[in-house]
Amino acid sequence: MGKMKxxxxxxxxxxxxxxxxxxxxxxxGFISFGGPASQxxxxxxxxxxxxxxxxxxxxxxxxxxxxxxxxxxxxxxATYLGWLMHxxxxxxxxxxxxxxxxxFILTSLTYVYINFSDNIWGDGILYGVKAAVIAxxxxxxxxxxxxxxxxxxxxLAAVTAFLAINILDANFPLIIIxxxxxxxxxxxxxxxxxxxxxxxxxxxxxxxxxxYTFLIAVLIWLLAIIFILFSKESILLNLSLFFxxxxxxxxxxxxxxxxxxxxxxxxxxxxxxxxxxxxGLALGESTPGxxxxxxxxxxxIVGWSNDIFALGNPLFGALICALVATFFxxxxxxxxxxxxxxxxxxxxxxxTLDIPLSFITSAVVGLIANLGFVLAYNSLWINNNGAxxxxxxxxxxxxxxxxxxxxxxxxILPLLLTLGLTGMMMKIYF
Length: 430
Prior knowledge:
Elements: H1 18-31, H2 35-50, H3 56-68, H4 73-115, H5 120-148, H6 152-166, H7 172-189, H8 204-231, H9 234-249, H10 254-268, H11 274-285, H12 294-306, H13 315-346, H14 354-380, E1 381-384, E2 387-390, H15 392-406, H16 412-429
Antiparallel strand pairs: 1-2
Helix pairs in contact: 1-4, 2-4, 2-5, 3-4, 3-13, 3-14, 4-12, 4-13, 5-14, 5-15, 5-16, 6-7, 6-14, 7-14, 8-9, 8-13, 9-13, 12-13
């Protein structure tokens, strides 16, 4: 927040060059396959373990906060970490570069999807990448669990979260809130409540500065809406309002957003068919960046189908709609971080939050593990025209990928390239 002081002790290397950070965030934007679990794991391995830019405690402190927010947790974490290192400029650069490669890749693939039919090569590549993605998620779960599950009750929190979402189909945000409440109970039980005012880190000066940030975010949103109104394109306005609402109400990241988007886009608006949405999800899973980037795909399809500018070639309108959908989805994410990050950093000195946040982190481990389990189960058990069978070949690829990540320390990008090529060869020759 401008001159608002950030915690200095969280920066392990005070000579982090902005240029170096820019190159890293750009690279991450191109290699961040596998959804939030693997993306979080990538950031932790590179920023904390290898480069030692941020200390471990600060990383998970930031992660806990982003998990509580609506929107894409991995992109918000990148924005937060960028802010820690280089202020608002660093946060903006990190957040934008995390999604920019995905935007261009996904719009290009959507264009190919519209104009060219699928072939066996593409199917094979997606098959191999799917195995790698599942392995990446399990690897991320193992790495994070080793760091945060230090006590038996943290293990219990992780297992409970896993069972709650897997068996009871509990709501993601409710699990996080419940974990935090249990953490507070443990805090009181251990008689560590030392602060008469748990919010004593707040001041009028802090609140005024954060209010300015909030007003700037609202102003940017209003200016964008006014600009769209002048275009007199109702579809652009509908897209902007719909994705603004989606960004604010869908807690739990992309997997919480998807049911909302599916229902409203297919049933309420009729913009896409069910099959188009399923195909979009496949494209989103196989490209770098947040899975929530499926909104880019949706915008592109809507713009292409309606040829909103009536130019004869719908490509320009499709790109504009894709940009609008992406902009209004991610604008709140930046606002949440630039408003919330300073508060979270200030709260580090307030020990009231330590145990609740540790319980939240533990619950997140269970939720990530569930994601890997669900994806693995749905991928391994195949239903082909009523006949079910277990995909042994895919299981072998998953196990080998996990061993490569955990034992051989193979990088994520080489793994994805290798598995994509392997999957293509398997589909062609077997």
